[in-house]
Design brief:
Distance between the termini: 40 Å
Strand content: 35-45%
CATH topology: Alpha-D-Glucose-1,6-Bisphosphate, Chain A, domain 4
Strand order of the largest sheet: 1-7-6-5-4-3-2
Number of strands: 7
Helix content: 10-25%
CATH superfamily: START domain
Number of domains: 1
């Protein structure tokens, strides 16, 4: 089973600042609920770079498949638990987070909590990006 989620938030910052804030992997824990991210291969700023995210104990290795600052970064989820693609896009003053995931059979039960967590993370991201230095 696959699912697609697209959530967005308005950010009072220029597009390049929004993009730099979204791709500051080491600081992602400041806005993304329960998540720690580190670059494990490459520079984290180019196609082929890989990053590891751990969210509430679930590992998620991702490979950057498109790097187009300040417009978008696309990922391929490589894990056994989290599989699919993701996009962080900047459209004017909006930050858009899209996930296309292969999900387990119980996903419909946890989807409301997952979406709530993403929405709260996006609200924190807007504040983070507006103050980003």
């Amino acid at each position: 089973m696959t699912t697609e989620l697209e959530l967005a938030v308005q950010v009072a910052a220029p597009p390049d600042t929004i993009f730099r804030a979204a791709t500051d992997w080491e600081r992602q824990s400041e806005w993304n609920s329960g998540t720690r991210v580190s670059v494990v291969e490459g520079d984290g700023r180019s196609v082929g770079s890989e990053i590891d995210a751990v969210t509430f104990g679930v590992g998620d290795r991702m490979r950057i498949t498109r790097w187009d600052p300040p417009h978008a970064v696309e990922f391929l989820h490589l894990g056994k638990v989290v599989r699919g693609t993701a996009v962080f896009a900047v459209r004017g003053s909006r930050f858009v987070w899209t996930e296309r995931l292969e999900v387990p059979f119980f996903y419909p039960l946890v989807k409301p909590l997952f979406v709530l967590m993403l929405r709260r993370s996006l609200q924190r991201f807007a504040r983070f990006a507006e103050e980003y230095r």
